Amino acid sequence: MHPLDKFQYCPVCGSQTFHVHNFKSKQCEACGFTYYANPCSATAAFIRNDKGELLVARRGKEPAKGTLDLPGGFVDMDETVEDGMRREIQEETGLTVGEVRYLFSIPNQYLYSGMLIHTIDMFYEVHVDSGVHPVAADDVVALQWIPLEQINPKDFGLHSISQAVNRYLTA
After folding, report:
1. Total-model pTM
2. Residue 45 in contact with residue 84, Cβ under 8 Å?
3. pLDDT-derived band at 1, boundaries 50, 70, 90
4. Would you say the C-alpha torsion 93, 96, 100, 105 has a positive or negative sign?
């Protein structure tokens, strides 16, 4: 189902004449309002320590509850992607980080509340000292440091995360 299929009425005037305008938009015939369904910005972090280990999270919520994940999440309004990445790292691990280095992006689809949300997932690399002690919080139930050579991309439940881990390990 296309995300716009969930919207039957114009959010401005309430008219039922809110119809498909093109692949990514609907337009109201009554008031002329056009709504574009653009992808949401999301982030994920490859957090490495000086031992060559990667910090991985265990998901506490659906989708893919119980599978491995990378710390990250949606970027809030009025927030840069980098600030959103830092905030998500702090919320999920308790770590306060400075520099985050952009690596690449992958388009994704994320099922949330019965609606398929299109995202653009942006991946960053972060380096921390091996003496830091992250603590699982927010929607993460556990965190662990894993040596890169022991990581299997198939253990990551979200498709874009699995793709990104594979790309990161083979780069």
Report:
1. 0.90
2. no
3. low
4. positive
